[in-house]
Amino acid sequence: MKxxxxxxxALFRDGLRSLLSxxxxxxxxxxxxxxxxxEQARRLRxxxxxxxxxxxxxxxxxxxxxxxxxxxxxxxxVLTVSTDDGDLFEAIKAGAEGFLVKDLESDKFxxxxxxxxxxxxxxxxxxxxxxLTEFARPEAAASKDRNxxxxxxxxxxxxxxxxxxxxxxxxxxDRLGVSQNTVKFHVRxxxxxxxxxxxxxxxxxxxxxxxxxxxxxx
Length: 218
Description:
- α7 crosses α9 (180-194).
- This protein has helices at 10-22, 34-44, 60-70, 85-93, 106-117, 125-135, 153-163, 169-176, 180-194, 199-208, and strands at 2-6, 26-31, 48-51, 75-80, 98-101.
- The longest helix is centred in the last third of the chain and has 15 residues, at 180-194.
- The radius of gyration is 17 Å and the shape is globular.
- It folds into two domains: 2-121, Response regulator (Rossmann fold, 3-Layer(aba) Sandwich), CATH 3.40.50; 131-217, Response regulator (Rossmann fold, 3-Layer(aba) Sandwich).
- A five-stranded parallel beta sheet has the order 2-1-3-4-5, with helices on both faces.
- By secondary structure, the chain is α/β, with parallel strands linked by helices.
């Protein structure tokens, strides 16, 4: 796994680099501003950019948006001190694959990070509930182009499981009794048919448009 660290605090970058390196994760670049993060992502093409939100020149949300639009193979994980729900929602809308708080225990951090590297967002049932609150509001007209009726029965099962907070390929495969490759195939189809970028957006869409009934989550 190749990672770029983007944070305006050099001391934090040093500590995180040491922590990542000790786990065998290669830190191939560092950035102190959002502009630098975008430049590093363009030049180095890391697997993951760990992105702080509060940075000079260009904030982490805008940098995340630019990276995910321009470099879809580069995953952005927000790593922040913020516990504000608004930051969480905006980060996911910007295309972030995860939202991690800096006081997270190291084992949990690495577990979630490894999941993101496999295409599994850091998405818990609690996050799904928060997304429900946010995405209950009407979205822009772009959502009218999305047709959930295009999803097959098995794709709906996968989407329902993701809304419940079952987002890892292994857990989805166990839940549905299929292989992990089959899960990846279904998830890719869901995203393509709904014109979405990642699983977090798929969960938000399913809750907002009531494709999955929230009462079924209780």
